[in-house]
Each structure stands twice: as structure tokens, then as C-alpha cells.
Design brief:
The protein is of the alpha/beta class and 477 residues long. It has 3 domains: 255 residues, HUPs (Rossmann fold, 3-Layer(aba) Sandwich); 112 residues; 51 residues, no CATH class. The protein has a 5-stranded parallel β-sheet, with helices on both faces. β1 and β2 form a beta hairpin. α9 packs across α10, α10 packs across α14 and α11 packs parallel to α13. The radius of gyration is 29 Å and the shape is elongated. The structure holds zinc ion (ZN).
Length: 477
């Protein structure tokens, strides 16, 4: 499988450290608010990647952190701790906010068919590990204490910038995002590992440490949680592209300084979801959440399809018009599967199965091209093979795509059957349907007078007929 690797800036053949096994780490949410659908795009694409690894036969262990402490706010709202901000907004404690929004995040994930990672670790559950790694970095001379805080010394590394061409003068944003300019840093890019002198006087969550009572910075948590559960060599690390710098850059710096060798082989970054007015955020424009889409009548799986229809390394523009196109595509697929379910199933056609499956795999083997994988679904629907083969393929592909098209079609079929059964047991409906059949027979026999008579009799019963190319339908007043 070829995967684009942000660290090498090319598509590399994916080869895990241990044959047949994949260790995978994902930066989890900062649980101070609902996730917006732009955040969830990353989790959808990472879910497809994980599922494709499993589909390809790998034994995957995936770990995700939950940031419930230590994340400073971004540029747009400089200077606050995100968790404190949430707690103030809702007049709750930080832990209440963390619990509420962690649950909300996983509820959204469930609606989007995103599998929960094997290990989910809140930052607050791993404080001892953070302290151990920070002590190690101090011992090795990669960290220093200044003004009561512990900083990572980026000047001690041969190469700090990994993913792109950030230069010292481009760092203003990075400095503001990761570390407050507090005058204690020796180098502009240095970042805080642990705060004891906080500018946030009301910081609720604090722990004892060898350097005083304090709390960890954001970056250290991912390194430590990854090493705790996945060891010192990681196969693949995932996240949104805006985490590449400074967050992932800092993760690499501190992890490799601590363990003394290469840490992670592949970096998988999902690009932004934009609106027509720019990058999606919680603070500008409509706050787009899964619940908002549902309240407007959209099935969350339509949003999943919308994401799958484009490549993870391209920015994607969200608009309701674009989402409506995904609705049309999704419903079309369901309708076609519904008619497959009603047909004579036939024998399994192994040759056709293998050929169509190979196309699907080729798409995903080529840097997770989900848009072509969705095309492979259409190829199945159009293929000249038996319904049994097609349904087996769709079930097989859905282990990766998670669109549940066959499930949705089966639900519709059940609903149709139930409606037919109810109609069959209702004498009034049976009578109407008999009369409609008699009218059709009269029309066929060109006995228009009788046909009109029947229509009138139905009108008298409060039944309105609608003739369509698919036959006569009716409404009862
Ligand atoms: Zn992270």
C-alpha cells in the first residue's frame, strides 16, 4: 500500500515495524466543546485508514488521547486555556465539561460509523508518565527550567522542523499557539512541557511534580500516551493537517530526544474542510455539528459519503448544496440495492467478485483514494453479474467504507413489506386496491365509461387517484 508520508513528503510503501501488525496513534479531541464537522472529517478519514489496514489483514492497535487539560487556545482567541474557557462558558467544572464533551464526541462518532480506538486515554490519566518523560528530558539536557516552567530546548536538536519549510521568522503563530511568550524561553520555538507558574490563576487541575504543583503542556501528552500503550516505535501517527506544526513537530522533538532513536515512521495528515468563507472554525460562521445536520434532516452517513467522495489530502469545501448532491448519490445507491434485494439472487460468481474487489483495493492501495473506492461501489451496481455477487461485494467493501447502504436498503425493504402486510389485512385498503385493479382492467379493455365510474366511486369514498408511469397511486383524504 502506498501512503503519502508528511515526513518524507512523498508516497511511501507502507511497511510496519512488525510484520502483520500496525501501531496507530491518533490525536484526539480537546473536549471543551462539540466537535465541528471539519474536525470530524479527520476522524472519518482516519477511521477508513484503520479499517482498511484491518481489511488488508493487519492486526491493528489504535490509541487516541483525550485532551482534558493543558491545551492553550489558538490564534483566534489567544491566551486562554480551552478547557477553562469551556468551564467558564457553561459555569461547570473542568471535569464536568470534559465528561460531557467526551461523551458528545463519541456519540457523534457512532452516528458517523467511526469505530472507537482500542485505547482511549484522557491526558489527566497519564500525569505520572508525563513527569517521567520530562525528568528524562531534563537529565539528557533537552529541557530546562525557567521562571517555574519546564521548557523543551529546540536548539539541542540537529533538525527540529520536520514537515515543511517553517523558518524562524514564520514562527510567530506557532509560538502563540503552543506557548505563551513569557520571556523565559531560550529560543523562539521552545515550548512548555510543564507549567507551575501559570498565568491562569484559576487553573483547576493541578498535580504535584518534582518542580512544584503544576500541570502539563499539550504536546507532551501525545508522546507519552503513545509510548505508554504502543512502545517506543510507532508505525503511523494521524491527525489534521493543522496539527503538523507545531503540535506534531514538538511531539517528534520530545519523543526522539527522550528515546534516542527514530520514533514514528509514517505521518498521515487530513486536510481542511472549508466553507466558502474560509477554514471552518467554532468561532466564525455557523457552528456546524452532526446534530445541526441531523436537525436539518441529513443522515450523518451522508456526511461520511460526502467526505469519502474526495481525497483526504485535498481541502474540501462544505456547502449545503454539495451535501445535497451527496444525499442524491446516497439515496440512488440505496434504491439500486433495494431492487437487487428483490431480485432472484443467483449463484456467487467468484471471478467477478475477485475482479471487482481488486479494483476497490487498487483504489485504496493508492494513497487511500476513497473517491475511487466509492466509484468501485458504482462499478459493482452496474456490473453484469448476479445479485448474490453484488451484495457480497457491497458487504465486503462496507467493512472499510462504513456507509451501510445494504443495511439502509434492507430497512426500506422491511418497511415496504410491513406496509404491504398492513394493507393486506385492512379491508378498506384491500377494497381500494381491488377497485384500482378493476379500473386498470377496464382501461385496458378500452371500457372508459366503466373506468370513470370506478374512479367516481373511489372519489366518493374520499380516495384520490394519481396515474403515474409506474402505475396508479392514491391518497386517502
Ligand atoms: Zn496529539
Amino acid at each position: 500500500m502506498l501512503l503519502y508520508n508528511s515526513a518524507t513528503r512523498r508516497r511511501d510503501e507502507f511497511v510496519p515495524n512488525e510484520a502483520g501488525k500496525v501501531s496507530m496513534y491518533t490525536c484526539g479531541p480537546t473536549v471543551y466543546h462539540y466537535a465541528h464537522i471539519g474536525n470530524l472529517r479527520s476522524y472519518i478519514m482516519e477511521d477508513v485508514l484503520e479499517k482498511y489496514f484491518r481489511y488488508a489483514g493487519y492486526d491493528v492497535t489504535r490509541v487516541m488521547n483525550i485532551t482534558d487539560v493543558g491545551h492553550l487556545s489558538s490564534d483566534a482567541d489567544t491566551g486562554e486555556d480551552k478547557m477553562l474557557k469551556g468551564a467558564k462558558r457553561e459555569k461547570k467544572t473542568v471535569m464536568e465539561i470534559a465528561k460531557y464533551y467526551t461523551d458528545a464526541f463519541f456519540a457523534d462518532c457512532a452516528k458517523l460509523n467511526i469505530k472507537t480506538p482500542d485505547v482511549v486515554a484522557p491526558a489527566t490519566s497519564c500525569i505520572d508518565e508525563f513527569i517521567k518523560v520530562i525528568e528524562g528530558l531534563l537529565d539528557k539536557g533537552y529541557a530546562y527550567e525557567a521562571g517555574g516552567n519546564i521548557y523543551f530546548d529546540t536548539s539541542k536538536l540537529k533538525q527540529y522542523y520536520i514537515f515543511n519549510d517553517f523558518k524562524e521568522e514564520d514562527l510567530e503563530v506557532g509560538v502563540r499557539e503552543g506557548v505563551e511568550e513569557d520571556g523565559n524561553q531560550r529560543n523562539k520555538a521552545d515550548f512548555v512541557l510543564l507549567f507551575t507558574k501559570s498565568k491562569f490563576d484559576d487553573q483547576e487541575l493541578k498535580w504535584d511534580s518534582p518542580w512544584g504543583i503544576g500541570y502539563p503542556g499539550w504536546h507532551i501528552e501525545c508522546s507519552c500516551i503513545s509510548m505508554k500503550y504502543l512502545g517506543e516505535s510507532l508505525d503511523i501517527h494521524c491527525g489534521g493537517i493543522d496539527n503538523a506544526f507545531p503540535h506534531h513537530t514538538n511531539e517528534i522533538a520530545q519523543s526522539e530526544a527522550y528515546i534516542g532513536h527514530k520514533w514514528c515512521n509514517y505521518w498521515f495528515h487530513v486536510h481542511h474542510l472549508n466553507t466558502s468563507s474560509g477554514k471552518m472554525s467554532k468561532s466564525s460562521g455557523e457552528f456546524l455539528t452532526v446534530s445541526l445536520l441531523e436537525s436539518k434532516g441529513y443522515d450523518p452517513l451522508v456526511y461520511r459519503l460526502f467526505c469519502l467522495q474526495s481525497h483526504y489530502r485535498k481541502s474540501l469545501v462544505f456547502s449545503y448544496e454539495n451535501l445535497d448532491n451527496a444525499v442524491i448519490a446516497y439515496n440512488k445507491m440505496i434504491t439500486r440495492v433495494l431492487s437487487l434485494l428483490k431480485e432472484e439472487q443467483g449463484e456467487m460468481d467468484t471471478a467477478a467478485f475477485d475482479e471487482l474487489k481488486a479494483k476497490f483495493c487498487a483504489a485504496l492501495d493508492n494513497d487511500l483514494n476513497t473517491s475511487l473506492a466509492v466509484t468501485a461501489v458504482y462499478d459493482v451496481l452496474k456490473a453484469k453479474t448476479t445479485p448474490a455477487t453484488k451484495l457480497a461485494l457491497l458487504d465486503d467493501f462496507d467493512r472499510v467504507l462504513g456507509l451501510d447502504i445494504v443495511g439502509a436498503a434492507k430497512k426500506q425493504l422491511d418497511a415496504e413489506k410491513k406496509a404491504a402486510e398492513e394493507a393486506a389485512s385492512d379491508p378498506f385498503i384491500r377494497e381500494i386496491e381491488d377497485m384500482i385493479a378493476q379500473r386498470a382492467a377496464a382501461k385496458k379493455a378500452k371500457d372508459y365509461a366503466l373506468a370513470d365510474q370506478i374512479r367516481q366511486a373511489l372519489t366518493d369514498k374520499g380516495v384520490t387517484l394519481i396515474d403515474t408511469p409506474q402505475g396508479t397511486k392514491y391518497t386517502v383524504n
